[in-house]
Amino acid sequence: MSELDSAVEAVLRQRRPDPRCWAVIVEAVCADSASGGADRALVQAGPAIARHADRIAEDLRRQQGFFGTAVGHGVSLRALALAGAGDLRALPALHRLAEHGGLPYNRAEARIMAALPAAELIPVMLTRLRRDNDAYHGNTTALEVLALCGAAAAPAVAEVARRLDTPYAYDALRVLGGIGPAAAATADRLAAYATGRDPRTRRHHPRRAAWAHWKVTGDPALALDVCGAAVRSGTASHGLPFLADLGPLAAPHADAVRGLLDSPGAWTRVAAAYAYWRITGDAEPAVPVLLAEVDPHWTGQPAAPVQEAVRRLGEIGAPAAGPAAPLLRRILAREERLTHAYDSSRILADEAYVRTLTGALVRIAPEGAALVPVPRGAARLG
Fold first, then answer.
1. pLDDT digit string (tens) for 151-168?
2. Which of 75, 81, 86, 91 has the alpha carbon at shortest distance from 41?
3. Which of 20, 155, 167, 246 is deepest in the core (most CB within 10 A)?
4. Using CA atoms, how far apart are residues 22 and 4, in angstroms rounded to an integer?
């Protein structure tokens, strides 16, 4: 196995590889001698390649050409790697890619770009939306990024509201709700989706639209009605996250939510446990339900709500400390990454899980959150 192949294998499989592995991958990519595996690893590297940012930025300029106008795969790869590291030198290339249709087009890559400051990223996404009109990839990528920007995405309200007339309405609802009061002008449209008056309403729209209506107007009545009805109707898991966000305002639905703690569906049980705690402040019935879903041998299979359960235990905090803290430390101490995800997203998936575990520990047991054992052996080259 070559040195490059060993380095790629190490960063894909080990949470704490030898830092030299990243140096080998960066140099191979910048020398145009890398494999597809090295490309995929570099895009996912994030802060791990921060020390190599100057080398990547220099090579990005080379890839863009004398006039800085090239928009090929090489430009996209290097711009994404810099973006994941939070390096602002990615922005000119991302702007150029947005103008010419070369911006990355899946949700995982959207989340990579979201490491950049929202104020700098939003103009790029607006360019993407205006250029692509109703193209699938342009809308899903841009709306995902804008949703991650939250209230900072306010300058995009008009462009996002226009997507309420397209197949991307659900993502638009998510963005508008995240923006909040600055999107108040869309309240009537949101209410139409929440109540089914809009002929484009589909079965998954009403709850998200009702939630968004509450976030932009401050009036919880519609959200309580629509999401509460969903919980009582048997489509419980689809209404529970929004009732959780409403918190004590959803107190009239607390009994219905508690009844779902014994649901046969794991995702519903987790959503109900979190919602019940958010509504009532009572962690006692919620913590055992969430703990039961934290599988220390989880491989990343999305059918199991393991990461969601960890996240919710972290939000509950100290009342979950008992058996949760040592379990989370043990999972964090693992040397091997999650194995279920494909190579193109394995590092991203595992790093997201590590952030969730670490964040939960900080809230549950702050005094011991850093006591994660260092692996006995680092992944080595060759």
1. 999 999 999 999 999 999
2. 81
3. 246
4. 10
Kindly list the distances between the CA atom of residue 213 and the CA atoms of 133, 148, 205, in Å, as whole numbers in the listed order.
25, 18, 12
Q: CA nearest 179: which of 222, 210, 213, 206? A: 213
Predicted confidence at residue 375, as pLDDT, reads 41
**Contact yes or no for 341/334 (Cβ under 8 A):** no
Encode pLDDT of 248-270 as tens digits: 999 999 999 999 999 999 999 99
Q: What is d(CA 170, CA 296) in angstroms, rounded to the nearest whole number?
A: 34
Tokens of 285: 């019935």
Q: How far apart are CA 68 and CA 77, in angstroms?
A: 15
CA–CA gap between residue 129 and residue 140 (Å, rounded)? 10
pLDDT of residue 380: 38
Per the prediction, the chain carries an average pLDDT of 92
